Amino acid sequence: MHTYKAAENALKDKVILITGAGDGIGRVAALTYAKQGATVILLGKTTSKLEAVYDEIINAGGPQPAIVPMDLKGATKQNYRDLAATIEQQFGKLDGLLNNAGILGSLGPLEHFCVSTFENIMKVNVTAQAMITKYMFPVLRKSPSASVIFTSSGVGRKGREFWGAYAISKFAVEGMMQTWASEVGKTNIRINCINPGATRTAMRASAYPGEDRDKLATAEDLMPTYLYLMSDDSKEVNGQSLDAQQK
């Protein structure tokens, strides 16, 4: 899996929605999927970043992407309903959903957590991902083989001091994935998690400001796992939480 190499145009004719697509892992996943022939829908809160990714894809000769500016912290169920309806109208189906967007908040003892920060983290990292997945289900069912990927974390598998609401949100994501995966069973939809591990991103830098970033994996290094789970080569994989880096 960590050395997975997809066939050329492995995602040809697939339509894939990526949240948090403006930078970091989401940006690289969008570029990777587009390079493999997918039409990507770029969702994020900063339009200028989405436009930059759009330009990169077009300049590389990829299929024309779509841009959806949306701040998950303030998104409503009507926003998600409208998005699903637009995807169905424009594309007729949805083959993949990468729930990549997330916020870290502030690290520290749970005893001292800020209530408003806690609520924001849970809204973006858990509630928004549950909502967008729920409302995408009708268009995911129109795909012959649809993949939903949630983003996990090592601190969402084993509790670690000072990771607070972020860790709690990732435990919730793991549980949500497992519950949903057990419900879809042997349907056309499969649902899994990826734990990116320590990666050279802005979020990682804010959590470990003194760390030597040059020693970390890049988002590009993780893409074999992201590509594997989105390709039809993983159509029998369901309910798994995979590590994008070898331990």
Describe the structure.
- The protein is an alpha/beta fold and 247 residues long.
- The protein has one domain (15-243): NAD(P)-binding Rossmann-like Domain (Rossmann fold, 3-Layer(aba) Sandwich).
- The protein has seven helices and seven strands.
- The protein has helices at 24-35, 47-59, 77-91, 115-140, 164-184, 202-207, 219-230, and strands at 15-19, 39-44, 66-69, 96-99, 146-151, 189-195, 241-243.
- The protein has a seven-stranded parallel sheet, with helices on both faces.
- Helix 1 runs parallel beside helix 2 and helix 4 (115-140) packs parallel to helix 5.
- The longest helix has 26 residues, at 115-140.
- It starts with 14 loop residues before the first strand and ends with a strand.
- The model has no long low-confidence stretch (mean pLDDT 92).
- This is YciK family oxidoreductase.
- GO terms for molecular function: oxidoreductase activity.
- Belongs to the short-chain dehydrogenases/reductases (SDR) family.
- Pfam families: adh_short.
- InterPro entries: NAD(P)-bd_dom_sf, Sc_DH/Rdtase_CS, SDR_fam.
